[in-house]
Request: fold
Amino acid sequence: MAQVTDSVSKVIEEFAKLPGIGRKSAERLAYHVLRVPKSEAFALADAIRAVRENVRYCATCFNLAESEECSICADSRRDRTQLCVVEQPRDLMALEQAGVFRGLYHVLLGRIAPLDGIGPDQLTLPQLVQRVRQGTFSEIVMATNPTVEGDGTALHISNLLAEFPVSMTRLARGITTGSVLEYTNKEILADALAGRQRL
Reply:
């Protein structure tokens, strides 16, 4: 059976370390890199190097940034009375793509997960409390994920911020438009019933 070269083997190993990429996908990616023009392969390598060298966390909200502040914190048109708390930068990006929220964000860089060894001290909670203390926020929107850990993190934060005169809200949950009750899981149904509104 033919063996791959050391270089090909190494690139397959590196691709296989990526989340959601198994051995077969890693092999396909490696052979794709070999098939494309050198300029395209080097552009990928340069993009990976640039993102590791240039991207950091925003000094204010911990979103991804290429300077001291991210573009959202630097935007004077944002509503500075609303602060949305999310777990990760990718959650912030999902909310921004929805195009509805015009306030500021705070990224926790995780969630409290004792079974995974992640406690409150490993999140950006002190910085969040400091922002609320110094800011002019009237509403804090808890947008942690609707999981046991996300709900626990939201509860911990609401306790931390209880002394401040801000309204604490949580993202609504429930049944999406167009879905069928028969195929909706029990957690979504429970949230929908608990959060029901008057007609």
Summary: The first strand starts at residue 56 and ends at 57. The beta strands are 56-57, 64-65, 79-86, 103-107, 139-142, 167-170. The chain is about 45% helix and 15% strand. The helical segments are 6-16, 23-35, 38-54, 71-74, 89-98, 125-134, 148-160, 186-194.
